[in-house]
Design brief:
Length: 312
């Protein structure tokens, strides 16, 4: 395992016992969302002043004037992307049911640091259309490659959150020649890594309430949120399925990152995953959850700076 980055003091959980995590045999579980209603958050629960930061969900940033936007077609979908800056390319991939705006503040910071940053709305999410093919991580991976091709980028660093982190690992498995390194925040490599009790979290309920309203505001098909949510939930229940042998074939530099209060991914799963990827570095961000980039933006940015600079 790599040594810790210079400016962060991560909490490094112990290596789990191998008997706990035999991914190929894991029972498939999902978050069991109810697409018609999802989880309605109590009034004002998302903005409680006295709550610790890991129990908050700060506002979604706007893209703002920094980014140039465009569209491209791939396999039946029309994909929205935004880019800004010059220098080393960085492709940022958001989580399921969200959109590129969630990562916009972190993206602006990286532009200021001298990187060329590309944000992508995953197919069916945000301003991208769904197409007709079943949503899956392989298809989303090919969309990421299509964006790189469209922008004539030979190789990029990948910063992924949740589903975007899974796509980043998928790129490391199947298109390693197109990526330089992967920052995988809040990923899982088997559906058993999902916490089936996530829906009991107020933060998760707030997130799904927000996901509905932002879908209705941004999507070309604003009336199809229930169909969209069901397709994402179905993907979470069946994908991905990478065992230790498959993960051992990754030779791209990888950071496995999560918050110490992640509501959606079992931390033991995160730790086990980091030990299955050769040379992977594990970073657990303190006092933060699956939404650490919003809750602890300075800490998250410091982690990205260390990651992109090649530390460790």
């Amino acid at each position: 395992m790599f040594s810790p980055p210079s400016r962060l003091s991560p909490r490094m959980p112990p290596r789990p016992k191998s008997r706990l995590f035999r991914f190929a045999a894991t029972v498939v579980v999902g978050l069991h969302l109810a697409p018609a209603g999802l989880f309605a958050a109590p009034p004002d629960a998302c903005d409680e002043p006295s709550a610790p930061r890991w129990r908050t969900l700060p506002p979604t940033p706007d893209l703002g004037p920094t980014f140039r936007t465009g569209h491209l077609g791939n396999r039946g979908a029309v994909l929205f992307y935004a880019e800004a800056g010059t220098g080393e390319p960085v492709l940022m991939l958001h989580g399921g049911m969200a959109n590129a705006n969630f990562l916009a503040a972190q993206a602006r910071n990286l532009v200021a640091d001298g990187y060329r940053v590309i944000l992508l709305d995953s197919r069916g999410h945000g301003r991208s259309t769904a197409g007709t093919e079943r949503l899956g991580y392989d298809l989303m991976m090919e969309d990421a490659v299509a964006v790189l091709d469209h922008l004539r980028i030979d190789k990029a660093a990948i910063i992924g959150w949740s589903d975007g982190a899974i796509v980043g690992l998928n790129l490391a498995l199947n298109h390693a020649d197109r990526i330089s390194r992967v920052f995988a925040f809040g990923a899982n490599v088997d559906p058993g890594g999902n916490d089936p009790n996530a829906g009991q979290s107020t933060v998760v309920r707030c997130f799904f309430d927000r996901a509905r309203s932002e879908y209705q505001r941004l999507s070309p098909t604003p009336g199809k949120f229930n169909t969209f949510a069901a397709s994402v939930q179905a993907m979470w229940g069946r994908e991905p399925h990478w065992d230790a042998g498959r993960l051992a074939t990754i030779h791209t530099p990888v950071w496995i990152v999560d918050g110490d209060h992640d509501e959606m991914i079992h931390q033991e799963h995160t730790v086990a995953m980091s030990h299955m990827i050769p040379g992977a570095y594990l970073l657990i961000l303190p006092d933060s959850s699956h939404f650490a980039f919003l809750q602890a933006p300075s800490l998250f940015h410091a982690a990205l700076q260390d990651f992109l600079s090649g530390r460790p």
